[in-house]
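User: Structure with iron/sulfur cluster, tokens only please.
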Amino acid sequence: MARLKFICDFDRCIDCNGCSVACDSGHELPLAVRRRRVYTFNEGIPGKQFSASIACMHCKDAPCAQVCPVDCFYIRDDGIVLHDKDTCIACGYCLYACPFGAPQFDKNGSGIFATKGVMDKCTMCAGGPDETHSSKEHHKYGQNRIAEGKVPLCAAMCSTKALIVGDAQEVDKIYSDRVKLRGYNLGNLSTPDDEASDYPLTSIMFG
Ligand code: SF4
Ligand code: SF4
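Assistant:
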């Protein structure tokens, strides 16, 4: 099965926040949770300022899953990293392990450390472990667009197509083609096709 992944093409991101607003409203997220955020770096420095839309990167080696003491994370065959809110004890280990700050306490749940709620994070619009399209799944995890063959809300909403999601090799190819058209030196971006799905393109982009 193809592995799915997100990338944000920084040269196309215009900091409009359409992706994050679409995510917030489409999944009816509590105020405490921002599954996707847009950051601007090097603000005010001519030629160096850029914006990036960041959420869970659905890591192949998912550090969150490695540290969770109750194994509430699971990785689907298509690479989407999901978690079970009914199993979460809200210990916060995943929050500290995640390099992208993706897991966040929802403050409305009922974990053992109940005041902070249970952990929430981007599902790549793929729901959770409850029955697909059930009210339980929708209430706990939001929309399940992947089950309907749709792209995640954020990527669908991005007007400049800065956010791309899909088969990892195709996503890598789209980004590589864009970079070549811009005349950049590809450097180590040109990975062999057979390694493309394993290659953490986002970490190259972050340098
Ligand atoms: S919708 Fe696209 S352009 Fe707008 S902030 Fe998000 S990634 Fe950037
Ligand atoms: S929550 Fe963080 S560590 Fe876990 S898969 Fe997402 S980005 Fe990776």
